[in-house]
Specification:
The complex is a heterodimer of chains A (113) and B (119).
Chain A (H helix, E strand, L loop, with lengths): L3 E4 L2 E4 L4 E8 L5 E7 L6 E7 L2 E5 L6 E7 L2 E7 L7 E8 L8 E2 L3 E5 L1
Parallel strand pairs in A: 2-11
Antiparallel strand pairs in A: 1-3, 3-8, 4-5, 4-9, 5-6, 7-8, 9-10, 9-11
Chain B lengths: L1 E5 L3 E5 L4 E3 L1 E5 L4 E7 L5 E7 L5 E3 L5 E5 L4 E6 L8 E13 L2 E8 L3 E6 L1
Parallel strand pairs in B: 2-12
Antiparallel strand pairs in B: 1-4, 3-9, 5-6, 5-10, 7-8, 8-9, 10-11, 10-12
The chains are: A mainly beta (113), B mainly beta (119).
């Protein structure tokens, strides 16, 4: 299995809703990442997990809450989002140090109304 | 610190013509370079990567890139493009950065180049 699977593919949520994005990989990768991508922009790093521990939080607002329950799963919990949070959210994974590149999922297209 | 500059934001080209997408990088340490492709409303797919060894790297879908250390470039080329190559292409560089008592390979992206292939 050489894929990163993200669910759901599309999500529409209100500003008072709570929702979660899920990411799964079975490549034995020990680093996992959340990226946010706005239209016509490159992906921006949000969080890095290494060996199931949060290593990097790129000053992301607390309305985004990551969770890594085990080495194969990565969640992103969403609460009280703003319309400007609408974007494509990408999950990626890599070997522990990630120097050889990342494998990306197909993303979740989030719309906040 | 590391950075990537993609010199063209948009490249229009006719089908079966050759194409070159330009990428320059800046890195103070060992360099690992990548090209990713993103089709509309999809994730990023790795086209090719340079980690070490031969400076000419061949990737998927007939693409290749050449690592040029003296010019700090990693340009992407394809001798004959197809309509299906229409997509956005991102050049990226990976380098080690400290993180919470350990380190990880941070991937830094360029701004992207939109390749449009016309019939």
């Amino acid at each position: 299995d050489t894929e990163v699977t993200q669910t759901p593919k599309h999500l529409v949520m209100g500003m008072t809703n709570k929702k979660s994005l899920k990411c799964e990989q079975h490549m034995g990768h020990r680093a996992m990442y959340w990226y946010k991508q706005k239209a016509k922009k490159p992906p921006e790093l949000m969080f890095v997990y290494s060996y199931e521990k949060l290593s990097i939080n790129e000053s992301v607002p607390s309305r985004f809450s990551p969770e890594c329950p085990n080495s194969s799963l990565l969640n992103l919990h969403l609460h009280a989002l703003q319309p400007e949070d609408s974007a494509l959210y990408l999950c990626a994974s890599s070997q522990a140090r990630g120097l050889g590149g990342y494998t990306f999922g197909s993303g979740t297209r989030l719309t906040v109304v | 610190a590391q950075s990537v500059t993609q010199l063209d934001s948009q490249v229009p080209v006719f089908e079966e013509a050759p194409v070159e997408l330009r990428c320059n990088y800046s890195s103070s340490v060992s360099v690992y370079l990548f090209w990713y492709v993103q089709y509309p409303n999809q994730g990023l797919q790795l086209l090719l990567k340079y980690l070490s060894g031969s400076t000419l790297v061949k990737g998927i879908n007939g693409f290749e890139a050449e690592f040029n250390k003296s010019q700090t470039s990693f340009h992407l080329r394809k001798p004959s493009v197809h309509i299906s190559d229409t997509a956005e292409y991102f050049c990226a560089v990976s380098g080690v950065v400290p993180a919470g008592g350990t380190s990880y390979g941070k991937l830094t992206f360029g701004q992207g180049t939109i390749l449009t292939v016309h019939p």
